[in-house]
Amino acid sequence: xxxxxxxxxxxxxxxxxxxxxxxxxxxxxxxxxxxxxxxxxxxxxxxxxxxxxxxxxxxxxxxxxxxxxxxxxxxxxxxxxxxxxxxxxxxxxxxxxxxxxxxxxxxxxxxxxxxxxxxxxxxxxxxxxxxxxxxxxxxxxxxxxxxxxxxxxxxxxxxxxxxxxxxxxxxxxxxxxxxxxxxxxxxxxxxxxxxxxxxxxxxxxxxxxxxxxxxxxxxxxxxxxxxxxxxxxxxxxxxxxxxxxxxxxxxxxxxxxxxxxxxxxxxxxxxxxxxxxxxxxxxxxxxxxxxxxxxxxxxxxxxxxxxxxxxxxxxxxxxxxxxxxxxxxxxxxxxxxxxxxxxxxxxxxxxxxxxxxxxxxxxxxxxxxxxxxxxxxxxxxxxxxxxxxxxxxxxxxxxxxxxxxxxxxxxxxxxxxxxxxxxxxxxxxxxxxxxxxxxxxxxxxxxxxxxxxxxxxxxxxxxxxxxxxxxxxxxxxxxxxxxxxxxxxxxxxxxxxxxxxxxxxxxxxxxxxxxxxxxxxxxxxxxxxxxxxxxxxxxxxxxxxxxxxxxxxxxxxxxxxxxxxxxxxxxxxxxxxxxxxxxxxxxxxxxxxxxxxxxxxxxxxxxxxxxxxxxxxxxxxxxxxxxxxxxxxxxxxxxxxxxxxxxxxxxxxxxxxxxxxxxxxxxxxxxxxxxxxxxxxxxxxxxxxxxxxxx
Length: 695
What we know:
Blueprint: H1 2-11, H2 20-36, H3 44-55, E1 69-72, E2 81-84, E3 89-90, H4 92-103, E4 110-115, E5 122-126, H5 127-143, E6 151-155, H6 160-172, E7 175-178, H7 185-195, E8 199-202, E9 206-208, E10 211-213, H8 215-228, E11 235-238, H9 265-272, E12 281-283, H10 284-289, E13 300-301, E14 305-311, E15 319-324, H11 325-339, E16 347-350, H12 357-369, E17 373-377, H13 388-396, E18 400-403, H14 405-412, H15 417-420, E19 429-432, H16 439-449, E20 456-458, E21 470-471, E22 486-487, E23 493-496, E24 507-513, E25 523-524, H17 528-535, E26 543-551, E27 557-562, E28 566-569, E29 572-575, H18 576-584, E30 589-599, E31 603-612, H19 620-633, E32 642-645, H20 659-666, H21 682-690
Parallel strand pairs: 4-17, 6-7, 6-8, 7-14, 8-11, 11-12, 16-17, 16-18, 18-19, 19-20, 31-32
Antiparallel strand pairs: 1-2, 3-13, 4-5, 9-10, 14-15, 15-25, 21-22, 23-24, 24-26, 26-27, 28-29, 30-31
Helix pairs in contact: 1-2, 4-5, 5-6, 7-8, 11-12, 14-16
């Protein structure tokens, strides 16, 4: 069964002269046979055979020796490790750019259509142009003393220079650590310190909708905080974006988007007045003008680090997820190719930010590895009006569209009218990412946006997994609204109960994986013990996702949400401990507890219970201060939706806060279950009486 499944699905099927339905029908038949016969325990030989075939599409300075994947998931048997293609030498930047330009003769093909915040602000970048700019930036970094293994922090908006910076790091073997441009100075500082970055690349500012963000001021604040902690960043490069007309990738004589907005001259001048520190500040454009556009890549070992990307941790301290070169390259390339049924003439658009893993895997590395043409969008889905996304789809004739359930739910509120102003005839595949999608939103997406003719691929994966691990295949897997469907090839999921026993048939429990795949994370940067404790200690022998999962009678998998102290707000994981830590730093707060509350657009929102110190009163002014503090410490995305004065919190006799009880109170659900371990039951009614109006 295995030998017939693998060649049909992945090795011998040619797309030449065939439509998507005929090819993927064959895939579906074999895929479902595989599922129905419970062939989750695929032999490692077959997995290696498949990935070895994928690897043939890439350039290797030297081939790997030994087995394709070597690993230990069992903490009781020693150190947890994952190794892929050990001994192989390559460079991921060479494979996504040079290989396409020189070997595949795709230099004149568009790599990115950049669409600015303002309609009409646009830019087209070919693979050849992108390669030249990356080489220039790589030479700039080398001239500043950056070498293989050094960590570089990148804090930029959605501009082409962001892609250039990350690929320049990869070209010389430096490790990029990208921080979402919506995070605060405190969050940026924390990530710089944890990864011991030697250089920061940022921009002076950018527009998000009609709001001007002074990015350099935030970055300056972050560097000042680093200095206070006795860590200095040696230099600091930024593109002069606001009001500038000399962007290195922009057509001659054009202006960067914000310069066209005369109404914000005062704001632009304010950003221009941010102090220039000649000891650390360097100008991107000046450096790039002087750099050569040829740069030999640094050849890297397969398991050399590629990037660090921070995700929230249940302890409150973000985790630096480390991905390595070869496995990540193969996995993002293959998942992009098969999940989106990529074809050479596609125009693909992922609406995520590169500051998150979706942007790393499915805006930069996956699409470029396949020679794809992508849309890179700087703006918001509702600016300047709620039809912006569909206008862009028609403008660039987008064929594959990948967005978050949060965006879908947001646009649903405005009905079908804004969507139907544009034809969207080019669309062939729709995708969702970031969080489980509710069936109502799925159906609106399928019926209204896709007009019932575009398959929806609802993908489940994490920062840690590197790429899709559970997903339907377009026009192949019979669709169930809201289901993540089945595992990608070589991914072997299981559902466990609290005792760590595997559950068969229709059931619900902990989602785990039984063996690695090439793109899975290798460690938590600088803290391998935390890596083992977080993902492998609870159930030795399994990678624990932290998500609950339900398997239905047909074998489809449904993600039921986080089972640890994490929240999924607008597709972004937030740690309750991190928010609580920000709240208790206020002088008035004695204790804080944060739980999730359902939100019609964001999926989940933050509901905070606040216990004050003696002598302080709970006021509207105090609530505003607390929200401001969370924004400054973490970022706007973590701003609480609800805050409740809580003179007492429900605790066990050992002092542990009973969060499940708080979640019930936040939802106004009186069935609290077993509360026999509560130290003081009287606090319950008081909390119900004081709860926020969430209707």
